[in-house]
Specification:
Largest sheet: 4 strands, antiparallel
Strand content: 5-15%
Helix content: over 70%
Structural class: alpha+beta
Shape: elongated
Number of strands: 4
Order of helices and strands: HHEHEHHEHHEHHHHH
Number of domains: 2
Oligomer: single chain
Radius of gyration: 31 Å
């Protein structure tokens, strides 16, 4: 058995080295395939980062009356933080709300003058809520409205989720994120299928040049696995070599795109992401290359085994 294994390994390595042009063509085509697969990973990361950034821009404000006790408002905030659907709940006191109002209207002298004439702070405390998912704002708003401390104290002024404009904006963002996720998933599946098909056909063309050799081996009595094994070794070598080429190409590619993605796609730098997750990319790209090369060779040689 050990002698057979050595012969298979030797035949596979010889087949990989002896046809330099064929090997180079197969490695380059598989490198393009693996580059596309790796790019799909970056695309998914960028898409998720962008959607997360969009979701973080949407929030909900809970406004309280001016006579609402501060300890009761903080009690509401603590209850919100305990909800699994809430990512963050930030309390703004009446003074903080007034300071934020002044800052927003710094260039509106008429509004500031009217505020001064009131003589007293007309704003109540505010709790700013960020949900983990935009679809959860409705349940959060209902939770707040039905809290005993809210009902008994009559200290709730309004929840801006019930404003038509705010609700429409949240619902629109939800549709956009859902559509983007579905489109991204469909695109990844489609491109993955295309890359696998390209790899299979490339390996099949390589094996086509050895069809006569396969026929001779079968005629002299070699079993199917003994015939297949050297070509599977070749396919694995094609995949591993293409994976190394792809990993090298990703370095300048991600370096060139790093600042662009950081500026326009949710603040993620793909170059830093690539370096940070290099062991994962190494396992993914090399592993995909080996699996694609081995399986494609196993399937492609099948049509030439019948004599």
């Amino acid at each position: 058995m050990w002698t057979t294994i050595k012969r298979i390994m030797r035949a596979g390595f010889l087949g990989f080295w002896r046809n330099g042009f064929v090997t180079l063509s197969a490695v380059l085509v598989m490198a393009v395939t693996l580059f596309v697969l790796g790019s799909l990973v970056f695309t998914g990361v960028i898409l998720n980062s962008t959607l997360t950034e969009l979701k973080s821009k949407v929030d909900m404000n809970i406004y309280f009356t001016t006579d609402a006790p501060e300890d009761k408002v903080i009690e509401v905030k603590d209850a919100l933080k305990g909800l699994p659907t809430v990512a963050n709940a930030q309390y703004l006191s009446r003074e903080d709300a007034l300071a934020a109002f002044r800052e927003r209207h710094a260039n509106d002298q008429l509004t500031l003058q009217a505020l001064e004439e009131l003589g007293d702070n007309p704003l109540g405390a505010v709790i700013n809520v960020q949900a983990k998912d935009p679809t959860q704002y409705d349940s959060i708003a209902k939770f707040v409205s039905e809290m005993p401390v809210i009902i008994e104290g009559s200290m709730l002024d309004k929840i801006n989720y019930y404003d038509e404009r705010q609700r429409v904006a949240i619902e629109r963002l939800t549709r956009i994120t859902n559509s983007a996720n579905q489109l991204g998933f469909a695109l990844i599946i489609l491109l993955a299928f295309i890359t696998v098909a390209i790899t299979f056909n490339t390996i099949r063309l390589v094996i086509y040049t050895s069809r006569d050799e396969i026929a001779v081996m079968r005629l002299v009595g070699a079993d199917q696995m003994y015939v297949r094994a050297p070509f599977m070794i070749e396919g694995i070598l094609y995949g591993a070599s293409a994976g190394l080429v792809t990993l090298v190409l990703f370095y300048p590619f991600t370096y060139w795109l790093g600042k662009t993605t950081q500026s326009f796609f949710g603040g993620i730098n793909v170059f830093s992401y690539y370096l940070l997750h290099f062991p994962l990319f190494f396992a993914l790209i090399i592993g995909s290359g080996i699996i694609l090369g081995g399986i494609s060779s196993f399937l492609a040689v099948r049509r030439y085994l019948t004599i």
